[in-house]
Design a protein that fits this description.
Low-confidence stretches: none
CATH class: Alpha Beta
Radius of gyration: 15 Å
CATH architecture: 2-Layer Sandwich
CATH topology: Alpha-Beta Plaits
CATH superfamily: RRM (RNA recognition motif) domain
Order of helices and strands: HEHEHEEEEH
Shape: globular
Mean pLDDT: 93
Length: 97
């Protein structure tokens, strides 16, 4: 079994993801092989909150050029976590909002 730190890689801080904080939705980059149940348990363990729903998005790598060479950025997976109404917020995001 994977550790919670191996599943949740980093938070995603964008203008669009910050709009979701008002609706108790938080966005994270997660391991590509993690499923929704593992992601929910990892968030509950790391942040001490109650998760009501998990939406996942597989993001394919984009083509980037450097000079005359070209290549693809790594493919990633994002998870949008929705918390229950009675759960406290995630402090990391709340301080930015």
């Amino acid at each position: 079994m994977k550790m919670a730190q191996d599943i949740i890689i980093k938070p995603i801080i964008t203008e669009n993801s910050m709009k979701g904080i008002a609706d108790r939705k938080y966005t994270f980059q997660v391991a590509k092989d993690a499923n929704k149940i593992e992601i929910a348990k990892a968030v509950e363990e790391l942040f001490g909150v109650k998760v009501s729903k998990v939406n996942t998005i597989s993001v394919r790598g984009r083509y980037r050029r450097q000079g005359w060479k070209g290549g693809y950025t790594p493919a990633t997976k994002k998870a949008i976590i929705t918390l229950t109404a009675d759960s406290k917020g995630i402090e990391f995001f709340e301080s930015m909002y």
